[in-house]
Design a protein that fits this description.
Layout (H helix, E strand, L loop, with lengths): L1 E6 L4 H12 L8 E3 L4 E4 L5 H9 L4 E2 L12 H20 L3 H28 L5 H14 L3 H26 L1 H8 L3 E6 L2 E6 L8 E4 L9 E5 L2 E4 L1 H4 L5 E3 L4 E2 L4 E2 L4 E5 L7 H15 L5 H29 L3 H14 L3 H6 L1 H13 L2 E3 L2 H9 L2 E5 H5 E12 L3 H12 L5 H12 L9 E5 L3 E6 L2 E6 L11 H12 L3 E6 L4 E11 L3 H10 L4 E5 L4 H11 L3 E3 L4 H12 L4 E5 L5 H6 L2 E5 L4 H6 L2 E3 L7 H31 L8 H20 L9
Parallel strand pairs: 15-22, 15-24, 22-23, 24-25, 25-26
Antiparallel strand pairs: 1-3, 1-4, 2-3, 5-6, 5-7, 7-13, 8-11, 8-13, 9-10, 9-12, 14-26, 16-21, 17-18, 18-19, 19-20, 20-21
Helix pairs in contact: 3-4, 3-6, 4-5, 4-6, 5-6, 10-11, 11-25, 13-14, 13-24, 13-25, 14-24, 16-17, 24-25
């Protein structure tokens, strides 16, 4: 089977119809067209020209195909032109130029709904009942009663919904491409004392590679020579660099900060941690089912039911009760008009569009109506720690000085001023906050994996972790202070001169100011569980969890372990995952709903269903409240539409149903659900 990327798919149902047509071709058995991932798999011997022709009937095409149209989706322009024509017709109606306005309404309908109308007619001929069939019946019903304006509104709204759905899904499909850009492409293979640049796919277990400062480690392995700090945020979400030396494991995709490392490969790239992340995201994209399919399933039964009822009303009274054929046909036509699904079709899209607009005003980008519906059903929210609940940037939380504190900050900042290490920058920033003026050291020597020493004002000082110092320097008080910071999950940096320890710094990831308040608000609006998932150490995670008030905490998790936790939570609740890093992408993709921070990695933002554009959690509770209101409105709209239609149908029993009552029930329901949906746009205090 060969695989192709397809662009321009407009809906899940359309993709299924295209798939069936492709499967009917010679060698088409087993062909699959996945709407979520936009991937087409076909036999190598299938006639691709015929496949292109089938795809083109829905405006889709094979990406990177020389014959593919290199243009934007024309549906947007058609809908825009339809709106212009619709407004023009309204003006002409005001001027009592009805004949011309009807022609313009028809032109607007043709631009927005001609493809749907053609597909709907084909479905009717083949006895297939889906959204296209519903739309076609709605348009035919509107034509039959002369409601050109209503037909134009329905066609335009459906066209807008179709375009937005396709646009949101296409953005989600790009998530895998964004992830692939994060992966290293080449490695420096050491062979017979020489280095050679090779593709990472060619690396075998046992090969030794050289990783220079600033480079990505090509695949999972073990350090056999060298010392350095390694940033593993892409894999574990750990904000703090991890010191690596001989015998320690490293993950593919993590970044070497300063020293030279010789790494022996323990897993081929296809089996590495980074490759697993890419696979997990791809798997999730290809198995997630859009909730919009509900209306298609409903239409499968609703439309045939209305047609059967209409036929019953037309035939039974004349054949069995000697009623007038004229009256029976009249009543049957009225039933068909009552059965026009305009109100049902509008029950959802207007409310969803209003909800998405309302959230967009608050800086919450929802990529599709299905995701807004899901947000309203969420009862458990899982958060990544680093960059989500915390800022993802080390800062000094504790300064324990055994000399004057300002002098300690001066010495430490002077030594660290020449380093780009995140911990060094945190200490320099602390000195700046205290308005300490520092200077670069006169001499400097770096000890990879431990720290550095340098001369400041003619005197030698050292700064680094415990390995940098003789343990005889650690008095009982220093050990007690250090142990206290360790218990609080702090990373410790010591400062000493040639005789004694001068002080120590406790460094941690800074908690976002709004995190505690947001967690409290979420609990207040009925979120049952708030869960923190992190690759950080258990003590650090527990300290953060205690401060912000989440109900459950799981620490030291790799991306695949986060996915497993998400799957466990999903067994009992609708679960949202909030994250910002590349390592969060699999969990974002597997959860019922993925929510990304606005300044997170491109892969997280593209994979997620919702993006908090302001890069903080502050608007999340209100977004959930709006989503719940949208869901309540949709349910109420459907109930009202069906109730009005059911009431009108009951009028057929005594023979009271007239065309006017049928028109009023259909138009009344349509107008009512539209107005009710637009109320969502009204601003009011929500939490």
């Amino acid at each position: 089977m060969k695989e192709y990327r397809v662009k321009g798919l407009t809906c899940a149902n359309c993709a299924r119809a295209l798939e069936e047509q492709i499967q009917s071709l010679p060698y088409g058995e087993g062909a699959t067209l996945n709407y979520n991932s936009g991937k087409l798999r076909v036999h190598e011997r299938i006639d691709l020209e015929k496949v292109r022709t089938i795809l083109a009937t829905d405006g889709a095409y094979i990406a990177d195909d020389e014959q593919a149209p290199k243009k934007r989706n024309p549906l947007l322009y058609f809908v825009g032109a339809s709106i212009f024509l619709f407004l023009t017709a309204l003006v002409l109606e005001r001027l009592d130029i009805d004949g011309v306005s009807v022609v313009i309404y028809m032109a607007a309908i043709a631009l927005s709904g001609y493809k749907t109308f053609v597909k709907g007619l084909n479905n009717i001929i083949r006895f297939r009942f889906n959204m296209d069939t519903l739309m076609t019946i709605a348009l035919i019903g509107a034509f039959g009663i002369g409601e050109w304006k209503e037909a134009a509104v329905v066609a335009i709204l459906f066209g807008m919904n179709e375009y937005l759905e396709g646009l949101g899904m296409e953005r989600a499909r790009r998530s895998l491409d964004m992830l692939l850009k994060q992966a290293p492409k080449e490695a420096l293979l050491i062979s017979n004392g020489q280095t050679h640049v090779v593709p990472i796919e060619s690396l075998q277990v046992g090969d030794v590679v050289l990783v220079r400062p600033g480079e990505k480690i090509p695949s999972d392995g073990v350090v056999i020579e060298g010392k350095s700090s390694v940033n593993e945020a892409a894999i574990t979400g750990e904000a703090m660099p991890i010191e690596k030396e001989k015998g320690m494991s490293v993950y593919g995709g993590s970044v070497n900060n300063e020293g030279m490392l010789h790494v022996q490969i323990t897993k081929q790239y296809k089996d590495s941690s980074l490759s697993k992340i890419l696979h997990l995201v791809q798997e999730a994209q290809e198995t997630k089912t859009p909730l919009e399919l509900f209306i298609h399933r409903f239409a499968k039964y609703y439309t045939p039911f209305i047609m059967i009822v209409s036929l019953f009303v037309m035939l039974v009274p004349p054949l069995w009760f000697e009623a007038s054929w004229h009256d029976a046909l009249y009543q049957g036509l009225a039933v068909l008009i009552v059965g026009c699904p305009c109100a049902l079709i509008l029950s959802s899209p207007i409310a969803l569009l209003a909800g998405m607009t309302r959230n967009a005003r608050k800086g919450v980008l929802v990529k599709g109506g299905v995701h807004l519906e899901t947000l309203g059903r969420v009862r458990t929210i899982a958060f990544d720690k680093t960059g989500t609940i915390t800022k993802g940037k080390p800062h000094v939380t504790d300064v324990i000085a055994y000399i004057d504190e300002n002098k300690l900050l001066y010495i430490a900042a002077s030594l660290e001023s020449v380093s780009s290490h995140p911990l060094a920058q945190a200490i320099v920033q602390k000195a700046k906050l205290h308005h300490i003026t520092y200077k670069q050291p006169e001499q400097m020597t770096t000890r990879t994996g431990s720290g550095m020493e340098g001369k400041v004002d003619g005197k030698w000082y050292r700064i680094g972790n415990e390995r940098m110092f003789d343990h005889q320097l650690f008095t009982e008080q220093i050990q007690k202070d250090a142990e206290k910071l360790k218990c609080e999950g702090r990373t410790i940096v010591f400062v000493a001169d040639e005789q004694r320890i001068l002080g120590l710094f406790g460094i941690a990831d800074e908690i976002r100011e709004e995190s505690k308040k947001v967690i409290q608000q979420l609990h207040r609006i009925g979120i049952r569980r708030t869960v923190m998932l992190t690759g950080d150490h258990k003590k650090t995670a527990e300290q953060v969890a205690k401060q912000v008030g989440v109900t459950h905490t799981f620490a030291q998790l790799l991306p695949e372990q986060k996915v497993e936790k998400i799957k466990e939570l999903m067994k009992n609740d609708t679960v949202a995952m909030v994250g910002d890093g590349m390592n969060d992408a699999p969990a974002l993709a597997h959860a019922h709903l993925g929510i990304a921070m606005g300044k997170g990695t491109d892969s997280a933002i593209e994979t997620a269903d919702i993006v908090l554009m302001q890069d903080h959690l502050g608007k999340l509770p209100e977004a959930i409240v709006v989503a719940r209101r949208v869901n309540r409105t949709i349910r109420l709209n459907i109930a009202i539409a069906l109730s009005l239609k059911a009431t009108a149908l009951l009028f057929t029993i005594p023979g009271w149903l007239t065309l006017w009552i049928a028109i009023l029930s259909d138009m009344g329901a349509t107008i009512f659900v539209s107005i009710l949906s637009l109320f969502i746009l009204w601003e009011k205090r929500t939490i």
